Structure formats: C-alpha cells, structure tokens
Amino acid sequence: MRFVDEYRGAAEAQKLVRAVHRLATRPWTLMEICGGQTHTFIRSGVDRMLPESLTLVHGPGCPVCVTPLELIDRAIAIAGRPGVVFTSFGDMLRVPGSAADLLGVKARGGDVRMVYSPLDAVKLAQKHPDRQVVFFAVGFETTAPANAMAVWQAEKLGLENFSILCSHVLVPPAMEAILGSPHNRVQGFLAAGHVCAVMGFREYEPLAERHRVPIVVTGFEPLDLLQGVWMTVRALEAGRVGVENQYARAVTRDGNLPAQELMARVFEPCDRAWRGIGVIPRSGFRLRAAYARFDAERRFDVGDIRATESPLCIAGQILQGLKKPQECPAFGARCTPEHPLGAPMVSAEGACAAYFQYARSA
Fold this sequence. Notes:
By secondary structure, the chain is an alpha/beta fold. It has two domains: 1-310, Rossmann fold; 315-357, no CATH class. It has helices at 10-23, 35-44, 46-49, 63-66, 69-79, 102-107, 118-127, 144-157, 171-180, 193-199, 204-211, 222-238, 257-266, 296-300, 315-319, 351-357, and strands at residues 28-34, 54-61, 84-88, 111-114, 132-139, 162-169, 188-192, 214-218, 242-245, 267-274, 278-287. It has a six-stranded mixed beta sheet, sandwiched between helices. A five-stranded parallel beta sheet has the order 2-1-7-8-9, sandwiched between helices. Helix 12 links the parallel strand 8 and strand 9 (242-245). The protein is globular and about 65 Å long. It starts with 9 loop residues before the first helix and ends in a 5-residue tail after the last helix.
C-alpha cells in the first residue's frame, strides 16, 4: 500500500539504524509523545535496534490514558440515567472507573453505543428527539476539530437534546510540565505528527528554545520513527535546539488553519486534570460560554463527582516517562487487559497494553 509499505522497508530501516549507531556518542533519553508511536516502537522492535546508550521513554500521548478517573465516573453516572443515549469511541468503553466501566453500564441496560464520529451522535439526536444524546469528547488536538464541528452543527440545527462530555487535552502544556519537572529525564522529543497536522508546530518553537531541547515532528511508521530518532540524536550531538519536521508529507508549520479557527470558535483553553499526573494549567479545552448549553457536565449536574486513583497503578509515572510498564508490580499480574487497574492497559494506544500485547518484559 502506497504511503504505508514504503515506510516499512527492512533495508531502509537497517540503513537508518546504522546511521543512528554512528551518530550516538553519548547517552541520551528521548520521549515519543504519541501512544500510537509507542505501539509502533514496541510492535516492530525498532527500539531494540537502537544503541544501548539511547533510552526511549513513553509520554502522555494517549488521550484515553490521561482522561481522569473522576471524568470516567461522571460518564458512567450520565450513561446510567433513563432517557440517555451515551455515545463514545470504542476505546473508552472498557476504561475502568472507580467501580465499573461503560460496558458494565450497557450490560445493566444502559443505552451505551459505540460510534465512529461525533457527527454520528448528532444524527442520533436528530433521530431521537425524545432522548438526550451525549458524546464523550475525548482526545488531543487531533479530534478536537470534529468535536467542535459536532457542537457547531448541533447549534445550527437547534438541537436541544445533544451535549458533549468534554475531556480535551493539549500537548504543548504537557510537554512544558514534563520539562519543568525536577524529575525530568527527557532530553529530546518526538512530537506527534497527527497533532501537528492540525496545529502546526509554531507552539513548539518557544518551548524548545526555553528548555533548550530538540523537538522533531515525527510520523508513525517504523521508518518515520527511525528517521525521527536520527534527527533528534543528530541535534543533540551537535548541541542544537529547536523544531525539525520529519513528517513533512503531512505537516506544515502553520497546520490546518480552518480547523484551528473552528476549534477557537467553539472551545477555549482551561486547566485540565490528567489521570495520574494532576492538573496542568491551560492544558485542555472547554466549551465557550456561547456553547455552554451543550456541556453534559452542566446539563446532568455531575461536576461534583470526585474519585481517588488506585494506589497500585503507576500510570502517572509511566505517562511522564519516569517508569516503564514492566516496572509496575501489578503489570501482567493484578493488572491485565481483562482486569485493568488503569487506562494504559486497555487503551489501543496505552503503553502498558503495548508491552502486554507484545510480551515485552524488558
């Protein structure tokens, strides 16, 4: 398949591996932000091809994983109410709340449905004017344009029975929090290409300068990641900081301006809690006042629901690159995909799920 297979060639991969080995003269720690990149690293074994002096750690780039426990509990509370059709992407349905998950609500008779687009939920609201249709709006900047479009369209259609439970998070503030931590070990970043396809990479430039790190916008195939590692190590060895774009076939510096304009019309920045990490200032989106009537938290009055994370789950440390999944005492024993303690074990982009699926113990 064009534009996929051409970035998976073994011979080209070996050339890049040899180039990285020639470049790396000192120990360096790199972080890939996106959970999709994590899965490619682990599935393909690319990380094991790199010099021992390079340490790869996994970042908070799985939106399902960083959705806070209390928001899952709020979703469960809404989904269990009579007259509600609760819609979500499939990867949220098995994420554990304090005592249950959304699939459990469905098993008990709740109308919980998997959809493939937030616009599917808008159509359901049109089709069922007697029901309250809620969409669980989770994701980074990548999914925010479609969710903004759903709200904008619902407003244009005059739908009074549609709302979203908003849990949008933003990548640059999370990178700022990691780099500003006294425990930070990251010296260079592979930035998420799909986020930058929407937002561009202007926001990353002052971040790189402020913290004196290289940031390379990187794609998702094995050759993308190898080239991204090579570019990051090249910058580190040369003492160069700033932003480079490996994923030029999909990303420009300015990004998708119409998508950004729609997001800015519907959403505004807010402080946001990240599961296992805590509150990061201005790291999320919420609906602007003009669209507040589409806010499911307000509509169903669930904003006061609070929750406490399991002390057995070290997801926060994994998402900050401080530990790897196999360092968790519960990994593969008390925490499995069938009986997860945290979202990283059930999300399609979770680091724990990647290590478990591909039997990675080291």
